[in-house]
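Hello Y.,

Per our agreement to keep a running log of every chain we model this quarter, I'm adding this entry. I've kept the format consistent with earlier entries: sequence first, then predicted structure.
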Amino acid sequence: MAERVRLVNPRHLKPNKDNPRLIFREKEISELEASIAKQGILVPLTVYEDRTGFRILDGERRWRCAKRLKLTGVPVIIQPKPAPLENLMMMFAIHHTRRDWDPLPTAYSLQKLSAEFEKQHGSAPPESELAQLASMTRGEVRRLRSLLSLPDAERADLMRELDKPREQRTLTADQVLEASKAAVQLHKRDIVNQRDADRLRRAVVRKFRNKIIKNTVDPRKLARLARAVEREEVSMSLARKVTGKLITQPDYSIDDAFSDSVEQHDYLHASTQLTARLTARLREQSEREYEVSGELAEELKQLVVLIKRVLRN
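Predicted structure for the entry above:
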């Protein structure tokens, strides 16, 4: 519960190091600044007091705008100072309804929350409890933890992307995650070794950047390829061939690989079923000794020519 509301000079406020929002984009700040310049700060900031002044629990963007506008006072609601674990939990809870957080910075904050819990309780929280602590679903926790398992270089690339305006970004966290999951699935089925799984992940990420792959979930087609190999619907040699092309050929897309493997199998399977039905139909006609019409005879002659051509190929 709030202790009191008062005006505080922005110079006496400090950002909260545990804020899951690490990136503040210029466009968003400028838009908020224009609104504050016109209407003032309508919603007070939430802060707590420590030895160095006030720490912000909610309202860092408003505070940044106030400094830029050289305001001498901003309205604040002062809360009791929380313990370190409570501070982290409050930061997640306060911002829970905001969906414009960037996943990777949020993942780092989630890691801090887990570490602080372990420091206080002697063991890391299970996934279900961590989700409760962070006011998240277990699915959201798993997604953020997956980001932390990415190689350092790829996490650094994603953080650099966050410095750009949204419209200038060429890569998202979800695209990197999908690329990573696809590589793992192919490695599990021994279609690629660990070295080539890493190369594949990097290749798919590059293709996302270069717009060769445009759909974020396209890498899931590679998981379908892995399952097709497991069911012996697609040969291991063909799967390795198309995977190798993905790694080495810059313009070869996942759609190309899927078309050359799983889609090809599906097409051939459908052709086999159609051929079997036609064979059964012709066999039945022969057994009934029905007369062959001129139209049917012509179609059968063309079919014979086509069958010979297909078999030669």
